[in-house]
Write a structure and sequence with these properties.
The chain is about 75% helix and about 0% strand. The protein is mainly α. Among the domains are: about 100 residues, Serine Threonine Protein Phosphatase 5, Tetratricopeptide repeat, CATH 1.25.40; about 100 residues; about 50 residues, no CATH class; about 60 residues, Serine Threonine Protein Phosphatase 5, Tetratricopeptide repeat, CATH 1.25.40.
């Protein structure tokens, strides 16, 4: 071959001289030059061909184009095609494929468009595949569909698996799994390559469950998976957290001997187990790998970080270096995230030093990641120092620094950086504005944050990535702009689990619990699988809405996905069950937790305390302390609530002593308010005042608690005095304050103060929107006998429930206006308001005062037969009183004996009084004996 090549070179030299070789010899020269890849010789032969007019020779022109394309002389190859008189399909194919191969896809598409004007140009499968790749590279979906049509026209859909695999891959890259599935379904023949392309496509598009089903169908059709197929389906199992199917695939991989020898599939197995939360299995697979490179190590590290095991991630990083495996930039970015999550400045500095030692100092992505890391842990000076070392300070670098300052509420520094960036000629982007708004949010300056967010145009978010989109949703939500947050979510081009979690969390934090659960359902319908964060938010929503059945559904999902071992999930589940009243389930979940922290104990104590089981809650507190776990602020808050519910003043005193010993009262105003509430509800007003006086700060809740304590314990003057002191301290009252003071005014007859409070209520617009305040006003005016004023307040109410009707009717009844009571009752029914037991006590009492026996009997019957309200002691007492006044003692004693419970002393007292008025010794003696028996 060497001798032949030299001979041809000699002939080639002759070609540059006077002698012209034959076509056959010249083609041979071109062929050997192409095989050798001699670029200079190719250019010489091209120049010779042009001088000798050989470019118009059909065969030589094709060979020349092929030679020049293969040696990278694309411009010269293109010029031959432009100068050629006859355009060969082969030359077009070679040139188009060449442009794609050499990284010029736009030229390839341009040539393809030129061929549309030329007849009889046919493309081979290699060219069509190259065009599909070019469309993907340039993101030209429309041109891709044109090439698809060309493939169909040439009949390649039925017979060329390679073309079809690329077609499926193209739609996958465009994020169109449905189109990829349609192409796939029309294929007559399917091999492992085309199946793998579809599985990978569905996995990438977040259709993980469909990808797993495709893998199963492939095997049913007798196609054995290869390592690429195994890799794709394992990634699908990881995304769907389907540990059962993932383990089945792992077994099959082991059967073909791929899990230990193949680093790539081994790393995918590690990633799958890590995403499913089974780090033990992930580490077992990793330990069995014959070769552990930077990819496999990074996969394991990332797995530990995703489940929050940051210490384990750091240990893996250190072990990786001990084994001589050098981390790459991806590894460092992962470990920087771990360092910041641990809030360990020492670890951050160690990793930073390692990055410098391995000469990664000029890596732009790592530089930005370092700034972000220092920003998260609050080392803002270090963040700025790293920023100064970044060679190219683009918008990403500036955004990292602005986010660092913004996260910690350093508004002045954030604004300064923002202005410096603009002065450098760098335009802010969406992420910049989001970080700037978060600086104001951190300082609770919501108005300024809203102004910054107003600068953002959310009409076109097609280029926004999921992370920036999630940050924007979070910013809008924290400003209370949920409508804009959902609008951003709807417009995002891609939404991952982080995006969904951000929206669901935002809904729960803004009280939109039903919407949060709707988004949870929608997320799963779109093929995105919930993680621990999702379940925690949805459990909170269910607890807030008291949806026991939904909590049970989530519990089943959590168990199936193996997430119950995550501390925060288990703790939230305990609290959700407890809030829904499923205390046995709360205890069951708590008992099965691997570790009982102060959070899990507090969740249990809070659940029992909320349902009035104070003794059980305090019992759990003692058990918690016996286990050596110290209560935190929230544990004390819920324990104090338990004390107030059961009146356990002594236990509250113990807790107070422990709180003071730990110095918690100075740190937590909420705890101080809770302690104040205990003494207030137990009637220990002196102790309540002492706690109030010892608190370093008083918020509205503190003042309200003390005012309510005085008002509810009959100390109206003290309540009013406390209210006046609150105003002196510049604290603005709310509806609760005004209601308490109104009650105090009503009890002590302080009309002038009452009128002043009414003026304050009207000024705040509470008459139109606060039902409880208006109900109290009606009640107070009724106590003062100002029935016309009470009626005026009642008439302006936009909404009237049974409580406010009862208040008004009771007021008229107390002043003997029985006719108005009956009229109001009929009006209430006309408004569609259903009466309650209290309503009938008021109506029957009005009948008693008016001496209307027949009317009272009608109401008594209608109460149970018409409204399903069974008579209670107060109803029976009214009837006994009426019958006694009417002298019908036989009917009165009949009613007493038909009562479904033992008559109370109050009923017998009423009957005895009637007997005395009627002079009936026989009935009186009988009543006295029964009453005496009840007392004994």
């Amino acid at each position: 071959m060497l001798c032949g090549y030299r001979e041809l070179l000699t002939a080639c030299k002759g070609a540059y001289g006077l002698l012209q070789p034959s076509t056959e010899v010249f083609l041979r020269i071109l062929f050997i030059c192409r095989e050798s890849g001699a670029r200079v010789s190719a250019l010489h032969l091209s120049a010779y061909s042009r001088r000798r007019g050989l470019e118009n020779h059909f065969v030589i022109a094709n060979y020349l184009v092929r030679l020049l394309v293969d040696t990278g002389c694309m411009l010269d190859a293109h010029q031959i095609l432009d100068r050629s008189i006859v355009h060969s399909s082969l030359s077009w194919n070679i040139l188009i494929s060449g442009y794609v191969k050499h990284g010029n896809p736009h030229y390839a598409i341009g040539l393809y468009q030129r061929t549309q004007e030329i007849e009889n140009v046919y493309f081979n499968s290699c060219t069509l595949v190259a065009l599909l790749k070019a469309c993907v590279t340039l993101s030209i979906y429309e041109k891709g569909t044109e090439v698809h049509s060309e493939i169909a026209r040439m009949g390649l859909l039925e017979k060329n698996l390679f073309v079809n695999s690329c077609l499926v891959d193209m739609y996958a890259k465009f994020g169109l799994p449905i189109m990829a599935q349609e192409v796939f379904d029309k294929l007559v023949h399917r091999d492992v390559v085309i199946w793998t392309a579809l599985i990978a496509c569905l996995t990438e598009a977040e259709y993980a469950e469909k990808a797993i089903k495709c893998f199963e169908r492939m095997q049913l059709e007798g196609i054995s998976p290869d390592f690429k197929a195994f890799t794709s389906v394992l990634r699908a199992c990881g995304k769907s957290r389907d540990i059962i199917k993932g383990h089945e695939v792992h077994v099959k991989v082991c059967e073909v001997g791929g899990s230990e020898g193949n680093v790539f599939i081994g790393s995918t197995l590690v990633d799958m187990y890590a995403k499913c939360g089974t780090l033990t299995y992930a580490h077992e697979v990793f330990d069995k790998l014959m070769v552990r490179n930077d990819v496999s190590w990074t996969t394991l590290i990332k797995g530990y970080i995703e489940v929050g095991f940051f210490e384990d991630a750091m240990n893996c990083f250190e072990q990786m270096q001990l084994e001589g495996v050098c981390p790459d930039s991806v590894t460092f970015i992962c470990i920087l995230n771990s360092c910041s999550s641990m809030f360990s400045e020492q670890k951050c500095l160690q990793v930073h030093a390692e990055i410098g030692r391995l000469q990664f100092r000029n890596d732009h992505r790592l530089g930005c990641a370092l700034v972000e890391m220092y920003g998260r842990i609050g080392a803002l000076q270090k963040a700025h120092e790293v920023f100064e070392y970044i060679l190219v300070k683009d918008v990403d670098a500036w955004n990292a620094l602005i986010a660092a300052y913004g996260t910690h509420g350093c508004v002045d520094d954030t604004v300064r950086c923002f202005k410096e960036m603009e002065a450098e000629g760098i335009s802010p982007n969406l992420a910049t504005y989001v970080s700037l708004s978060k600086a104001y949010i951190a300082t609770e300056d919501i108005n300024k944050a809203t102004e910054v967010l107003a600068e953002i145009q959310v009409e076109d978010l097609s280029e926004v990535d999921a992370i920036t989109g999630s940050s924007l949703i979070d910013a809008y939500a924290k400003c209370g702009l949920m409508e804009k947050a959902t609008k951003v979510f709807d417009k995002l081009p891609s939404r991952n689990i982080v995006t969904w979690n951000t929206l669901i969390t935002a809904c729960v934090e803004n009280g939109c619990n039903k919407e949060a659960l709707c988004y949870f359902d929608q997320m799963q319908c779109e093929g995105v699988f919930p993680d621990a964060v999702t379940f925690i938010c949805c459990l909170k929503a269910c607890g807030n809405l008291v949806l026991p059945n939904r909590v049970n559904e989530l519990y089943s999902q959590i168990k199936r996905l193996g997430l119950l071992d995550r501390d925060q999930v288990g703790n939230t589940l305990v609290l959700a069950f407890a809030r829904c009243g499923l205390l046995n389930m709360a205890w069951s979940v708590f008992s099965n937790l691997l570790y009982h922290s102060e959070v899990s104990w507090t969740a249990l104590i809070a659940g029992y305390a909320e349902h009035g089981l104070g003794e059980e809650a305090l019992g759990f507190l003692e058990q918690m302390q016996q286990d050596g776990i110290y209560p935190d602020v929230f544990t004390f808050i819920h324990s104090l609530k338990a004390c107030s519910d059961i009146g356990a003043v002594d236990k509250a005193e113990e807790l107070f002593a422990e709180i003071e010993r730990q110095g918690l009262l100075e740190e937590s105003l909420i705890l101080g308010n809770s302690l104040l509430d205990v003494y207030a509800k137990c009637g220990s007003l002196r102790k309540a005042q002492e706690v109030f006086d010892n608190l370093k700060a008083h918020d509205l809740v503190t003042w309200n608690t003390l005012i309510a304590a005085y008002a509810e314990n009959g100390c109206g003057k003290d309540a009013v005095k406390c209210y006046e002191q609150m105003l002196v301290h510049g604290v603005t009252p709310d509806a609760i304050t005004l209601v308490c003071v109104l009650k105090a005014c009503g009890n002590i007859g302080a009309r002038r103060m009452g009128y002043a409070i009414q003026g304050e209520i009207e000024k705040l617009g509470l008459v139109q929107r606060d039902h409880f305040v208006c109900s109290t006003l009606v009640d107070i005016y009724a106590k003062w006998g100002l029935l016309e004023e009470a009626q005026v307040i009642f008439d302006v109410l936009p909404f009237r429930d049974v409580v406010i009707w009862n208040t008004l009717m009771s007021a008229y009844g107390q002043y003997g206006r029985s006719g108005i009571v009956f009229g109001s009752f009929n009006k209430m029914l006309g408004d569609g308001i259903k009466p309650d037991p209290v309503t009938f006590v008021i109506v029957l009492s009005a009948c008693r005062r008016a001496g209307l026996l027949l009317k009272s009997q009608t109401y008594f019957e209608v109460m149970s037969k018409g409204f399903g309200i069974y008579p209670m002691p107060d109803h029976h007492n009214c009837m006994v009183n009426l019958l006694g006044h009417a002298g019908d003692l036989d009917m009165a004693i009949t009613i007493i004996r038909k009562m479904p419970y033992h008559p109370s002393l109050k009923v017998w007292h009423t009957f005895l009084k009637a007997c005395r008025n009627c002079g009936s010794m026989e009935f009186g003696r009988l009543a006295f004996q029964d009453a005496l028996h009840l007392m004994l």
